[in-house]
Amino acid sequence: MKKVLKIIVVIICFLVIARIAYVNIAYPAADIKIIDEDEIFDLKNFSLRLKEYDIYSKEEWKQKLENENIELEEEKYNVIYNMNLKTVLLEMEIIGFIF
Amino acid sequence: MNKIVRISLIIILIVSVLVFVFNTFEKYFKEDTNVNEINQENIELNFDYKNSIVDYYSNPVKDMGEKNYKAYQEKLMGEDVYVCYSLESPEEKGYSDYKYYPVRINITDYEIVDSYDGKIDEKWVDISDYDKFMLVNIEITNLYDKDRLYVLSVNEVIHYLEGTELDRYSLIAYNFEDNRPYFYRKDIKETMKNNGQYYYGEIILKANETVKLQAVMAYRGGDYNFNIGEWVVEHRLFGERANSNYKIYLYKQE
Amino acid sequence: MREIMKIELKRAFINTKFYIVVFVSTIFAIGSFFTTPGFTIAKNWFLYMNGDLDASYIIEKCDYSDVAIEIWMPNYGASSKFYFLWLIILPLLCIIPYGITYIEDKSSGLINQYIIKIGKGKYYVSKFITLFISGGTIATLPLFINLIICSMALPFGLPVRSTQFYPVKEYNLFSNLYYQNIVVYLMLYFLIYFVVYGLITCLALAFVYFEENKYMLLLVPFIIYFSEHVIISFGFNRYDTSLLLATNIINLRYENILFYLLQIIVLFLFDFLFFFRIRRDVI
């Protein structure tokens, strides 16, 4: 009886591992890929090639926005989003647009 | 000593279970209140905003407490802004914490035009980036026999509208036929699925009421251009990290 | 010490009650998978991979891949009935295999033989450690099983913050780690579960001096855990900070972390009452 149980457990483990391997190989990739310039990226109906791009670090981007006078949308239009909500209702007169 | 401990533990258990059951299943013990019956006196507005209002899927009456929720509505109604939350619907299956309530959405027609001169709610959208506009006429009927608040979201429009290319659009305005005021917040769920943003128009629907509106979407009918703009760009294809902002232009392979 | 630990661990893990608890936990893990929206997502992908037209229509409009972590059990929180029920009865499950062995040893007289052979200190330490390990293992097991099931349904990849499909926001604990190195996050997650539920299970040992009835002792960790949750959530209105909810660190915010740590420290001190009473324990 114990031997039978052991064999069953081994078979189940093997099937599980095989299935996990299959899913990770066959399904569309869930990785975040880093692609280089001129690298060709094949999607189902067409291919893409990254022609030109600029990469900014967080600080550089912040600086760039400041230089071009681009404001955060939340501040410019007085709109509230999920992530920025920290204050109590009473302090907020800016509950979105008032038509 | 042992007896005292035992009895106290049993009492604590019974009381906890009762409190838990009562709080969890409160709605079955309480009667639903009509949105119109709001008591204007003695309203307290001091509650913690964190978990309640802007979370689309939470139940604001439960989170804020009924009195505060009414007060919140009242305060905003006084300023001609209606805030709406979808309350729980027994008919919604599957997504148990997505709280909708039954409405009928009827897409009466849509058309694609080359230009749009009307009002634009979403001011960050640069409509010169788009070459066409899609005007979708929608009727929404409240199937409940009580007044309800409703969050209109453009994904429902997509869901029921079939046979069109909805890949490349940005919702820019709601035009209600009766010009009713509405509140909207921008949902920052940005997915490449529609290359844009979801928006909410939030309105009060009276019992069995039908409202007609037009959703205006700026639409790219032409070449497959990604213009991701200056917001968070994190996309599985390109390896960026969260909270980084990139401007990336892609072109079809020649 | 090694021998006694081996014996006690065998006693804890190789017995019928443990197998029954594992079976029940597996049912919860499997039930959670099939009753959440995650199952719909997984089914969609499965159909798509097998050429179904309706599924293709939905999936080809997406430019992203759903991952296993997205449909994992704790993500759905209280909306998943299986998960929430499992969370509530977890202390009961943790304590069943090994929790009452001390009382049983005492009443059968086995404890005398142990103490004569190895001494009081080692015996009590081994009891404590074994119960801790047993409780922690049972607590983490369904999470692990559910993760395996999810990995069988969807590929294992990094979560993407901007899709907003994930409940971990910037104010939650270790949010950056979640989105950058999910494996380390998972290891931390399991570790926290293991430690906290191990400590909760050991409450039974702290209460052996007050409660001599076996069955009542089984209920003690559950009563303390559940009533603590009720008092904190509904009494103090600090939802999401009780041990029941906050051990799932997906819910835990940075601002609540001190309160949560305080609960763990109190729990820890409570458990150590077991050792302080050793001298006064009459066998």
Please describe what this structure looks like.
Chain A is α+β, with helices and mostly antiparallel strands and 99 residues long. Chain A has helices at residues 2-26, 58-67, 73-77, and strands spanning 40-42, 47-53. In chain A, strands 1-2 form a two-stranded antiparallel ribbon. In chain A, strand 1 and strand 2 form a beta hairpin. Chain B contains 5 helices and 8 strands, in the order H-H-H-H-E-E-E-H-E-E-E-E-E. Among the domains of chain B are: 1-31; 101-109 and 130-251, Immunoglobulin-like. In chain B, the strands form 2 sheets. A 4-stranded antiparallel β-sheet of chain B has the order 1-2-7-4, with helices on one face. A 3-stranded antiparallel β-sheet of chain B has the order 3-6-5. Chain B is elongated. With 254 residues, chain B is α+β, with helices and mostly antiparallel strands. Chain C is 69% helix and 0% strand. The chains are: A alpha+beta (99), B alpha+beta (254), C mainly alpha (283). Chain B: The chain crosses the membrane at residues 7-25.
